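Project standup — Tuesday

K.O.: blocked on the structure for the chain from last sprint. Re-posting the sequence here as requested.
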Amino acid sequence: MASFFSPPPALSAIKIVKPEAAQFVQEDESRTSSASAIPTRRDSTQRQCRNVMIYGSCKYQGKGCIFQHPTPTAEEEAAAVAASDAAAAAFENVRPETPVPVTPSLSAQAVNAPVFVPKSAVTSPEKSNHASSPAPASLTPSPPLAENGYHEDDSYEYHYEDGGLEPMGDQYYDDQHYDMSYFSTPHFVREPLNYHLYTQTVPPSFVNNSNDSHYMPSSHELRQTLQMRSEVTRGGPAPGAPLGLPDELQGYHTLVPLETSPADRRKFGQWQSTVYRAVKEADGIPYALRRVENFRLISQAAFAPIEQWGKIRHPGIVAIAEAFTTRSFGDSSLVLAYTYYPGARTLYDLHFNKTQGTTAPNNSPYMLISARNSSPVPVPESTLWSYIIQLASAIRRVHEAGMSVRVVDPTKILLTGKNRVRIGSCGLMDVTMFDQYARMASAGQDPQQVLQQQQLDDLSMFGRLIIGLCVGQTNAATGGQFQKSLEAMARSYSQDVKTAALFLISKNNPHRNITHFFDIISSRLVKEMDDALHAADCLENELMGELENARLVRLLAKFGFINERPEFARDARWSETGDRYLIKLFRDYVFHQSDEYGNPVTNLGHVLTCLNKLDAGSEEKVMLIARDEQSCLVVSYREIKSCVENAFGELARATTRPGKW
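H.V.: unblocked you, prediction finished:
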């Protein structure tokens, strides 16, 4: 069987040798002859130099500039001579009459001192300043050069055996005289992201009460909040967070602990629970995983309420995705997956926790907004009514579905936005208490009566939560604190708040249900609806500002399609003439500018201004200069836009036709 073997490729290495003197002479002669062979333009000597026209003089006059330089007149020469004489006379007047002797600052012994070379410096022997000077007799010769041309020892110290200067020892490199922390491993401080790269499309003064929206912050704060939420979503664990988490958990990965509440506030009955953020492998969306430690599932029927909770979609309830058991944590754990709200905080951490630390989950600026306060944040009455109406709406939705919430607790209610609350951890009590419900059903108790009692418990917990928010204490509605709490509520809040709270915690009221509660607070619903509609209008106005935010990207894409296409380099119809040449000059004007020192100019404002004018087709004129500075064009942005559209149109039409361009 025949085989073909390609010859091995030749080595591409080039041997570097020292050039001979004759080679330099030959190169100079060839360079001179080639330069003389280049024809010069016939009309170059008849054109006046542009440097003289712009700057008044040419620094290359008489040094090779081939353009015409006007000869100065007799009057101009006389004026220049007079100016130089006046300057010389002024200099003579300030010159001292007697010369001042200059005292040398160095002694005569310093002539024989060697040149100081640091330890870390590595200089070539041929280019060093002291290499050609003769060394003193008492100087120890330097070590021989290695094959790479450098000394084996990097010390470069001169040692004197008798008299003269002292040896150059460690006194010049004593580490005790310097702050060695400067030379230690660099500590990179995490700088916050730049959230201010956007400009406001509409001034706040033109939007009705844009800064006083009850549910939405101002435009600037809204952008910053959204950027911070994105940062929190992709952030790492907070310092001191527990490690040793599983890498994969039933299709979830990248687990990050979120809760920093004390252990006694994370209890669900007799179980401890922890919340993690994890990314689902199936869709790549982060979820909040609530883990119940050391839980043993009795029957798979306990997951039946999870299916019912999954059908409930309400703006005041954190939606549940799924529930499963796992042994990835080293024990039998129950895990429930909920919708993740980045930067969310519980009402307990915001309004009840008096000993919260300064470090919040994920170590994010957004999480530290309220964590810096050592005292709970008081609740204004307008905000309190927003909490009440949103929670009452969520409880009503659950009761109408034939279920009970069971978790109306400040540690389970999340604040996900400005005055926006949601009930979290729903369905967890239904799973953990399933065996107890089964025993009650087997004992002959009516399930409907049990459900009705659980719904009344929801109202009682809701009433105690309102009193606790007014006072700032979780036990404000228990024991001897109840009467004091009512007096504190009467001093700070209206009578309607007290009436609503007392209705919810009353036990002898036969009409105590969530529907009748809405009849009591109906006067507050209108204002809450107005605030919600106002927030929707503000959000729509913000969305209008982002409606055409991709137009500059479309322009840049067209520039990339048109400029310098390699397949059309030899095509006369697509050469850099006409429209394509104009587009190329405009590209250089926008992106390839340089300052007076030759440094590139990276001004994002200039780029955005030019592209916006081009997209709008402004009539403003702009001067485009060629790269050789021999020609310039003055055109408007409208003409440049027309050139871009025509050139891109030709490309678009060429893609629809078969065959070669």
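K.O.: great, moving the ticket to review. The first strand starts at residue 248 and ends at 249. The mean pLDDT is 75.
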